[in-house]
Amino acid sequence: MEGNFSRRNLLRVGLGAAALAALSTPPNALGAAKYKWRMQTHWPTGVGYYKPLYEGFCNLVKQASGGQIEITPLPSGAIVPTKDVFEAVGRGVFEICWSFPAYWIGKVPVAGHFNGQPFGWENFEETLTYFYQMGGMDIIRKAYGEHGLYPLAPQATSGITLYSKKPIKTIEDFKGLKVRSTGIVAEVFKKAGATPVFFPGEELYQALQTGVCDAAHWGSTSAGWDMRFQEVTKYIIKPFLANITNCEVFVNLDVWNKLPSDLKAVIEHAAMWNAAMSMAWFTYYDNVRAKEFEDKKMGKVVWMTDDTVKKLRTYSMEVVDEYSKKDPKYCAPAAKLLKDLLQMSGRLNP
After folding, report:
1. CATH of 7-156+247-280, one of 3.30.230.10, 1.10.10.10, 2.40.100.20, 3.40.190.170
2. pTM of structure
């Protein structure tokens, strides 16, 4: 994340992570910024990934562009409430945002596919295959484009971890469970018999502490850890609800279209590099925190049965089909790509 970059080198090598990491410092000092953007996220400032990933992306763009693009990273709610950033960026209130696609599925249903389907992609490579080889990114960009937005590379945050005050092993354990959830995952929980509820990040700890909800997910194990879920729950549930889930970075479409092509390439490649670093950061700390949870006897890691996972995957595909019917223009082709991928991997029957 702190490697040195230049625009010339970044454009020459493209996305190759090893090559990007080896780039040398530009011989000239950074010039005056030609483009000054403001960026807002849904992340609180106190979480461990805020500086290396969110602020790190802004620093990377500045360095890679030779100082021509300067992005000021702002925390959750700095300009508008998190629920309003989709429209705010589309209207040009500010230029760029880092957020979570599940928040917008009521406006843009295919955002659920951008986020990641429960029990869908098994690894980062499958995610890249879906978006960049099979055409998923083209579908997402057309859908977001109707709202005046241009999505950059999805920002992988590893798996979705459920922290719970109750052990969950079988499908029956979901019955009546009050679980803080969002997006497609919440729809899957409904089918399993749970009761999804929603609280913004700043209210989650208290909701778990007081029993207003029994379980919650906030991204990966390490993401939930930084929200201090381990203090108010007893169990980490595995396997992950999704092995890969994505945050997102999107730019106002008019602002994007005014950029010269070389700077567009710099930002897109920086976003893809940052996605790889995000995946690495979360994977490492997910393992560290899960081990700490048990080693320090803070709680237990419990595993859902194979039959439970199979049922949840079935529910997930049912939700995919339901969204395809609601949105035949974008969700239907996105769903077909996902099913094609799962069939190629042998995890879904033709």
Report:
1. 3.40.190.170
2. 0.86
